[in-house]
């Protein structure tokens, strides 16, 4: 079943199991059959390559020019004798011999557009010579492998990647040895793995990459030369934080797909539905629109579960009178949206729910209004929090700002892009995309009137900062009480 991409593109093979058995039987016997085996595989892979180049597949990916421009911008920012190193993500095992769907390291993808494991990118400001070639950018990638490709689909290989990218110095991964590195011409190494301090946490987040970092260490140690260790994080944060039009188009698409899911959950929700059924409706629309992944595990929590910020169990039955908080979004060609809506199970907010909801909505409006070029990133949180604090104090739920914080314990915003929690500048400027997502969560047992218990509300949209007014990329999903109640009356494909 995991050969779908390969098989789906080929008319030669109609039954993958039969074909596999056929090929396995052929493989070990003799030289003639070995040649036949190779020929069949190359035909299959050739057909796959042909199919992928046709209009049958999506063609709205980031362009090679985009990736080339990002490498150029990065190279500008390193020192004259600096060498920057980026590793592709490894394939991760889920259990036994089953792996997770491959997810590329986002920095690596940003700079290369390559969606394969076992690859290393080297960038230099000034040209250096590696394997007889003088240039400022070199990539080592996995070799083609007919047997592997039978199982998991086409590997680009050197020629394939040269065609796809604007890189000229493309080598196979097995050429990367200690002697390959131009250490004599280098005085510092930029990587993601060098900072034990404030960026240390990022190392832990990409745990499997430490194996690759260790390999780099051993390559450098082999040269017995002290090199300054620098982090790529600050440079990448500056670059990735300001989105280019090509990136904005993909985030917008991810947001629009996410909106379809949210709107259909609003239309289809009813008492007795399970949280996972709301998730199923949501993710149906993501997949149906060509989203490769969810941007993050879908959060669908009813009543008290809405008060668990990253609740992803999604197993409870949604009862009449409860609110369902859905924090779900699609990832499209590597870019994630991040959208939250909170909707009543029976299509109508109770009086208490409405009071809390209106505070969060006002807080979000205040936050969105603060998304202006030149203003501090932290100003968005300040604007939203002020409204939440005042609202909670007015309703007698909190006595002061400190108590109010218990009910709104997370920040209002984060940058959004290749990572759902993306990197970006502390001062807003045109091209920044950030979430605005205030919330109020009052779990049962809280020190307030019981009528507020088990109400959890978050409203989250994806905001593009421009020279003029901020643009809400997820505005297609209603946010007001009246609009949500109206949407709830609409016809779902699932109702
Ligand atoms: Mn978010």
UniProtKB/TrEMBL annotation:
Source organism, top-level taxon: Bacteria
Alphabetized UniProt keyword annotations: Aminopeptidase, Hydrolase, Manganese, Metal-binding, Metalloprotease, Protease
Protein name, as recorded: Xaa-Pro aminopeptidase
Pfam families: AMP_N (PF05195), Peptidase_M24 (PF00557)
Broad EC category: hydrolase
Gene3D superfamilies given in the database record: Creatinase/methionine aminopeptidase superfamily, Creatinase/prolidase N-terminal domain
Keyword Cytoplasm part of the UniProt annotation: no
Family of this protein: Belongs to the peptidase M24B family.
Source organism of this protein record: Aquirufa rosea
Gene Ontology biological-process entries: proteolysis
GO MF annotations in UniProt: manganese ion binding; metalloaminopeptidase activity
Aminopeptidase P N-terminal domain location: 62-200
Listed GO CC annotations: cytosol
Catalysed conversion reaction: Release of any N-terminal amino acid, including proline, that is linked to proline, even from a dipeptide or tripeptide
Annotated EC: 3.4.11.9
Known cofactor(s): Mn(2+)
